[in-house]
Design a protein that fits this description.
By secondary structure, chain A is mainly alpha-helical. Chain A is built from seven helices and no strands. In chain A, 65% of the residues lie in helices and 0% in strands. Chain B is of the alpha+beta class and 334 residues long. In chain B, the strands form five sheets. In chain B, strands 2, 3, 7, 8 and 11 form a five-stranded antiparallel beta sheet that branches. A five-stranded antiparallel beta sheet of chain B has the order 4-5-6-10-9. In chain B, strands 13, 14, 18, 19 and 22 form a five-stranded antiparallel beta sheet that branches. The relative contact order of chain B is 0.13. The chains are: A mainly alpha (178), B alpha+beta (334).
Chain lengths: 178, 334
């Protein structure tokens, strides 16, 4: 047991910053994010014996636990934000400013989006949740999830577009292509 | 889909940029180690329950039956996996209770549609942080708080949990929670009390080496405390009552015991559930302390002004699950 504790703490040390960053994407306030990290840590510790696939699978595993804890918590509070759906499908948001912007900024910009956009992008692209799972989580049809993802990507694109000139100016016109 | 690929390609690097401050990292470690201790203690308690079940005729391995029988000198062979049947109706605790905000007095916290709390305020009294919260909602609101919730903790602004005692004043519909040294209380949280429903549940317990198993047995010490200097014996142990002293809101009793380390160890390890029977006929839960710096002395503390009649405790059998190489060997009895 003590040896397991040390192994768990070692693996946790590598993941804890990532967990906090993921938690911030899913809930609104820093306190709530930190609370979520603690909840997920304790849940992971309790279920550590069920971890399969060795140390390298610890990261995805504990992140999924954090998402589940967030889901339970936010469902209880009805806080997975429902967006008004897109009236009509818009063009695919590619190619776009992401090709001209420093890609390292992508997730920082996602973090600045509205909660509903931020959550859906985090769930889909940070923890690879399938559309069907997202639909179950958000209690909406899969088509609605797809349109919500689309709107979130559009919002991100607009945000990036507004940043491109500034960044280009700051960096003397040099930009990092994707 | 350039966006999607870019998001996936960059996520790990972005996540890895976050480095927790040292104090937060330390908090997580403390949290894990504390939970580890709790898990080990709960397993010990469950093991005690399981062994009691063996006594009552539930069939486990013959090895555990040997332990249950408590055969002196013949240690049991402890299996590393134990299946425990928890009967329908058995109570248990789960997380997911109310999380009451304590940021500003007057703050309201809803729990479902028919129960809500309003934070009155907090004070510091004799090193204890005392939090008061009003209970509102349906007619059953107070009863629900009393019966459905347990394992209350006060969470401070640093995110640390402090175990809290809670009292509910049903007449005033006010909950009072207190804990030691909470400088900036932020939230008051509880778990939900529930019971095993529908059918019996089978629980598999794995016992790693080093886990302490305790099995309750009757027949702990009974110490007469009606007169100073009175001596009671229990086996080769003796306890001599040396008077009481009344503090602000609690009473401390002093006793003499044999001044050897083995006695101190036995008192701490082999006995639990200490209670004092008062002259008023009430039973008061007691906290017993044996100070290694003062051999031969034992103090007993109870809440309130209590004139004692006697002190008693339950006796436990304690054993260690052996390391893997010792599986099949007798468990060392303490």
């Amino acid at each position: 047991m003590v040896l397991d504790d040390e192994r768990f703490l070692g693996l946790l040390h590598r993941e804890q910053g990532k967990l906090l960053r993921l938690a911030r994407m899913l809930v609104d306030q820093e306190d709530n994010a930190w609370d979520l990290v603690q909840d997920a840590t304790l849940a992971a510790y309790t279920g550590f014996s069920r971890l399969r696939g060795g140390d390298e699978s610890f990261g995805p595993w504990i992140r999924r636990i954090l998402v589940n804890r967030a889901r339970n918590r936010l469902r209880a509070q009805n806080r997975f934000v429902l967006l008004e759906e897109a009236a009509a499908q818009q063009p695919d948001p590619t190619p776009g400013p992401e090709e001209r912007l420093d890609r390292r900024l992508l997730w920082s910009e996602v973090a600045c989006l509205a909660p509903a956009h931020r959550q859906v992008l985090a769930l889909r692209f940070l923890v690879d949740m399938e559309v069907a799972d997202l639909a179950r989580l958000l209690r909406v049809p899969e088509g609605t999830v797809k349109s919500r993802l689309h709107r979130a990507l559009c919002a991100l694109r607009e945000r990036l577009l507004s940043k491109v000139p500034d960044q280009a100016e700051e960096e003397g016109g040099r930009v990092h292509g994707l | 889909m350039g966006f999607e690929r870019a998001l996936r390609d960059t996520r790990e690097a972005w996540l890895a940029e976050e480095v927790l401050p040292v104090e937060r990292s330390a908090q997580l470690e403390v949290l894990v180690r504390r939970r580890g201790r709790q898990v080990r203690l709960k397993r010990s308690a469950l093991a005690a329950a399981a062994v009691a079940a063996v006594v009552s005729g539930v069939a486990f391995g013959p090895a555990l039956a040997g332990f249950a029988a408590g055969l002196p000198g013949v240690g049991p062979f402890v299996e590393r996996v134990l299946r425990l049947t928890i009967s329908k109706g058995t109570p248990y605790w789960v997380s997911g209770g109310p999380v009451i905000g304590l940021a500003t007095p007057g703050q309201r916290t809803d729990y479902g549609s028919d129960l809500w709390f309003d934070y009155h305020g907090s004070t510091v009294d004799d090193g204890r942080t005392v939090v008061t919260v009003g209970i509102h909602g349906s007619e059953r609101a107070v009863q629900r708080v009393q019966e459905d919730f347990a394992e209350w903790v006060i969470v401070d602004t640093a995110g640390q949990n402090h175990q809290a005692n809670v009292r509910v004043d049903a007449d005033r519909a006010v909950l009072t929670a207190w804990a030691l040294e909470v400088e900036e209380p932020l939230r008051l949280k509880a778990g939900v009390h529930s019971v095993v429903a529908n059918r019996d549940q089978i629980l598999e317990l794995r016992f790693p080496a080093g886990v302490v198993l305790r099995r309750f047995r009757d027949g702990g010490p009974v110490v007469d405390m009606r007169a100073q200097g009175q001596r009671s014996t229990w086996g080769d142990l003796w306890f001599e009552y040396n008077g009481r002293s009344l503090r602000d809101d609690y009473t401390v009793f002093s006793l003499h015991i044999p001044a050897d380390a083995r006695t101190a160890q036995r008192i701490v390890q082999d006995f639990d559930d200490w209670v004092v029977l008062g002259e008023d006929g009430r039973v008061y839960p007691a906290t017993v302390t044996v100070d290694g710096a003062q051999p031969g002395r034992m103090t007993v503390r109870v809440d309130g002004d209590v004139v004692p009649v006697r002190l008693r405790a339950r006796r436990y059998l304690v054993a260690l699950v052996p390391p893997p190489t010792d599986v099949g060997q007798p468990v060392r009895k303490r």
